[in-house]
Specification:
Blueprint: E1 2-8, E2 13-19, E3 24-28, H1 34-44, E4 47-52, H2 58-61, H3 64-71, E5 75-77, H4 79-86, E6 102-103, E7 109-112, E8 115-121, E9 130-134, E10 137-141, E11 144-145, E12 148-149, H5 159-170, E13 178-181, E14 187-188, H6 189-195
Parallel strand pairs: 3-4, 4-5, 5-6, 10-13
Antiparallel strand pairs: 1-2, 2-3, 7-8, 8-9, 9-10, 11-12, 13-14
Amino acid sequence: MEIKRIVAGIYAANCYVIWDETNEAVVLDPGGDVDDIYPFIQSKGLDVKYILLTHGHRDHTDGVDELKDLVKAPVCINERDDILMRNNEYMFGMLRSGKADMNISDGDVLQFGNCKIKCLETPGHTPGGMSFLIEDSVFTGDSLFAMSIGRTDLPGGDYNALINSIRAKLFMLSDSTNVYPGHSMGTSIGYEKKNNPFFK
């Protein structure tokens, strides 16, 4: 499995292109700058199977429609955030089609190439927050950051739910699991369990 991080949009959200030796791929959180994301996909000759969204905030979704037009892949998000996007809730993006192509839930498994994607519900930053476990890497969106957690003061945010999500879902993963967050640089589960100040 290979991973390319592309910092996208005015809020510098991390978009990830993830692929394996079959050249099948997924794109996670295309928050803008599709003119950077799509040329990379083309340069590698990748066949995008899914556009995955960790949550519905605009800084993670503003490039979805444009990218979908180019790669013809289904858009996947948890139903709770899909509803907030449909209702044009504050800070949530909207999709041209009105709704995502596929709603995903805790325990769902998707596949691209030889890689399986385990879907983990990690609500708190938003009601439908998702993380995605692929091999030894977890993509946490705005749930867990290096030495921090996502904000919970926006519509649908819930601090206690976020803390519980991280403890029950993310901190149950192996300490060696690599963490790829929605902003800034990566970390590991083990490091965050020991050092993240929100869990002291």
